[in-house]
Structure formats: structure tokens, C-alpha cells
């Protein structure tokens, strides 16, 4: 099925060889990475990364790409169902290879979800045990492409981690375990530092998927289950209520350069006021810095230099 695009602004040709910031999200129905304008969320390239072809080349027949993050001059993409990370050339989008825990194609990264880069380490949230790793958090050395640590400082029976973000030198991890909904905090050595934010899973957020750190150290969190919506969470961990996507079951969330909150779910890539794409299943949204394509939205092109890189 082809994506249905709605409400695009007019495009202009932009000659630009400099590195520019964009956003990357995924359509997991068609297994493609979509490049977006970081200012207004409009589509720049609807087939920036071909996840399906990459998966097929390493023998994976079922995929669900969740998140892509920039790692040096590469883009690493987590595959929740294929149980691995795909590596792509950041500038060309060409496939470079995959990572599993054993690094031999045996698929040890079981139920991999959100990821974040801190220094020379990619930290990833794992939903299930495998023969090589335990559920919780896995740390991958970006130079050797091998696991350097695997930890879960709480009782694994009380955790099911979905997203992970860097936060003032530590790690915040979204917990979707029933009865333990909230956000846990670790240091980058794997030491559990306690609960950052807790929810009753009934009147507050439930099944928190992607998290986004704002400039003031508060968070946005995509609460997938009812009461669903994008929640604002204070720097002190307080739930400040739904600010976007009320009752839409959001998965991904990002604050655009124009101040709008961009979110995704099983049907939409949109803000509350502007549908960008619909009719497919969309996932997390992350910043990437690559050479500007030949065409940008007019508004995005004018504002690109003013758009700050967000965490």
C-alpha cells in the first residue's frame, strides 16, 4: 500500500552540500525509513532507508523497525521482530550490515525497542531474554559492535522496558510492566538509581512508548494505552497531563522546530492540527544530521538554520 500524503507545503529546490538536521521515522507496514523536515515535519524522502531489503539480505523474513539513531556516520535501526540492529550509511542510506548479540546472525537481541547513544556506547531496551542476553538494557560498543554490558537493576519480574533516553549523563528507561508503569533511572555503568517517575497506569500514563527530552529537562511521553495521549512529564517526574494526541494511542513523539508536537500511531504521522501521512503503521521519531536532499519544504528551508538539535 502506498502512503497517502496530506497537506504538504510547496517545495523548492535547495542546493546544499552542508550537513543539515532532519527527522527519521519508520513505516513498519512497508518497512521503510522516512526522512522528515525538522521544522514542520513535512516529508523530505519517503524511502530514505529500505529496511525490508536490508532484512532480506541477512535472511530475516519478518520485521518491525522501531527507531533509527545516528551513530557517527551511520544510522542504526532497531528491529523488534527481527531481533537485531541494522546499520546504514548515514549519507547514502546504503546497508552496511547487522548486529546481533552473538554477532553471527543468531538473533540474540530479543524484542529490541528504543535506543540511545552515549559516548561510544549504544544502549538499547530489550523486552525479552534470549540465549545471550537478559531482558532489560543492553550496551553495545560502537567500535567493536559487540555487547559490553547487559543489566536490569530492578527485579526483572517488575520491568518491561520500551524506550531509553540520555538524561543529564544518566539513562531514563520507560517501564511498561503492568502495575509498575513509570520511568526508571540508571547510570551508564548499569547501576539502578531509582524511579524517576511513576504512574498508576489508570489515571496517569500507561504503556509509555517513545520519550522525548525537552530543553528544560522535562519530558514528553507517548502513552499508548488508555488514557492515551502525549503526556508532559516534569523534570521532577510529575505527570502534568496530556498535551497532544488525546485518545489516539501514540507511539512516537518529537517536538518540532515550529513548536508543534509531532506524533505517530498505527495510522497517522501528524500533529494535532496537521496530518502529514496516514494509512500505515508509524513508529519512533529521531533526529539525524545528513547532507540536505535536493528538495525541502519552503518553510523548512527558510527555518533550517534556526532549528536547534534536540536530544
What does it look like?
By secondary structure, this protein is mainly β. 4% of the residues lie in helices and 50% in strands. The protein has helices at residues 51-57, 298-303; strands at 4-5, 11-13, 19-27, 32-37, 43-50, 65-71, 74-79, 84-89, 95-99, 112-118, 121-126, 136-141, 146-151, 161-167, 170-175, 182-186, 192-198, 206-213, 219-225, 229-233, 239-244, 252-255, 261-264, 268-270, 275-278, 282-291, 295-297. The chain has a 5-stranded antiparallel sheet, with no helix packed on it. A 4-stranded antiparallel sheet has the order 5-4-3-26. The chain has a 4-stranded antiparallel sheet with strand order 6-7-8-9, with helices on one face. It is globular, with a radius of gyration of 18 Å.
